[in-house]
Amino acid sequence: MTNYYVQQSIQIQFIKIGGMSNSSILQIGTCGQITTNDFLYNTGGYTEPAPEAEKNGGTKPPSVTPLVPLQSPG
Fold first, then answer.
1. Which of helix, strand or coil describes residue 55?
2. How far apart are CA 25 and CA 34, in angstroms?
3. CA-CA distance, 10 to 29, in Å (whole number)?
4. Cα radius of gyration rounded to whole Å, the chain
5. What is the reported pLDDT for 21?
6. Residue 9 near residue 30 (C-beta atoms within 8 A)
7. Higher-pLDDT residue of 61, 24
8. Is residue 73 scored above 80 in pLDDT?
9. How far apart are CA 74 and CA 71, in angstroms?
10. How far apart are CA 9 and CA 29, in angstroms?
11. CB of 19 within 8 A of CB of 10?
12. Res 32: pLDDT
């Protein structure tokens, strides 16, 4: 096993990130090892599987009243 020692200096004047998702990694500089962690917790104390999902939710969505009055299109 070989050990590498890296000394680095990084200056970022501007960085714009358009988007990140759950499994995204933004790496700046070097990294010796990235290990993943995934933890599953049953915080609701459920003992049975969830019921099957209904197609399109099974019902029409509830009507929503906007908090800001909007003009009618047209």
1. helix
2. 10
3. 7
4. 24
5. 80
6. no
7. 24
8. no
9. 9
10. 9
11. no
12. 67
Residue indicated by tokens 């915080």:
43
Amino acid at residue number 23: S
Structural tokens at position 25: 């990694």
User: Pick from 20, 23, 19: which is nearest to 34 by CA?
Assistant: 23
Cα separation, 9 vs 15, in Å, equals 16
**CA-to-CA distance for 33 and 60, rounded, in angstroms?**
49
Put residue 44 in one of left, alpha, beta given phi > 0 → left and psi -120 to 50 → alpha. alpha
* Per-position b or e across 26-55, b if 16+ CB within 10 A of its CB: eeeeeeeeeeeeeeeeeeeeeeeeeeeeee
pLDDT in tens, 33-71: 666 777 888 888 889 988 887 776 566 666 777 677 777
Kindly tell me the number of DSSP H helices and DSSP E strands found in the chain: 0, 0
Reference 28, options 12, 6, 17; nearest CA is 12
